[in-house]
């Protein structure tokens, strides 16, 4: 069975975007980006909410921008090769290959997808991840903690969800980012 991973870059105080909705402080450098590319190796499907999809669809054409470094092109290839499921009531259509649009998040459908998928899945974006966490679908949490405090914004962890976690791995990077990998205990 495939695992469902929740993975994002956050501030030290636990936000994925600040109160203005910006996240430019979280842009990974080459070392961190290369590591994220390696983490994505076993990913076969990305699960997105509308806003995260609208941010990530950039990678559909990123390879066409001249003079992109190899680590950017590597991520673009991985993103393009993976399946994507976008959950949105308002998005009229998707604009990337290998992508399907679902109007509602159905935990049972995600369970079936985990049972039949050839590669792992990631849930991207804190809103959709909150629904997956509440449904008991998430197997691992990967948090890349940036050395910045933003003081508020969109939280990585949803309110009202209690999880018992086991630390599986950690790594420190030259720019001060720390990677934390946890399994969600039953």
From TrEMBL:
Q: Which Pfam families match?
A: RibD_C (PF01872)
Q: Name one GO molecular function term.
A: 5-amino-6-(5-phosphoribosylamino)uracil reductase activity
Q: Where is the Bacterial bifunctional deaminase-reductase C-terminal domain?
A: 4-179
* Superkingdom field: Bacteria
Single Gene Ontology BP term?
riboflavin biosynthetic process
Under the heading InterPro entries, the entry gives: DHFR-like_dom_sf, RibDG_C, Riboflavin_Biosynth_HTPR
Protein name as annotated: Deaminase
Organism in which the protein naturally occurs: Jiangella asiatica
């Amino acid at each position: 069975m495939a695992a469902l991973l929740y993975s994002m870059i956050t501030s030290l105080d636990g936000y994925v975007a600040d109160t203005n909705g910006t996240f430019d402080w979280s842009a990974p450098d080459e070392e961190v980006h290369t590591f994220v590319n390696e983490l994505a190796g076993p990913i076969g499907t990305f699960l997105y909410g509308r806003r995260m999809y609208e941010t990530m669809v950039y990678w559909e054409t990123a390879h066409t921008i001249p003079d992109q470094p190899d680590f950017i092109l590597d991520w673009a290839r991985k993103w393009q090769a993976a399946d994507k499921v976008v959950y949105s009531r308002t998005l009229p259509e998707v604009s990337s290959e290998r992508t399907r649009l679902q109007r509602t998040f159905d935990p049972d459908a995600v369970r079936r997808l985990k049972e039949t998928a050839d590669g792992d899945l990631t849930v991207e974006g804190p809103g959709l991840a909150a629904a997956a966490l509440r449904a008991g679908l998430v197997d691992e949490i990967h948090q890349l903690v940036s050395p910045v405090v933003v003081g508020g914004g969109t939280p990585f962890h949803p309110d009202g969800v209690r999880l018992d976690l086991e630390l599986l791995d950690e790594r420190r990077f030259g720019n001060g980012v720390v990677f934390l990998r946890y399994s969600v205990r039953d």
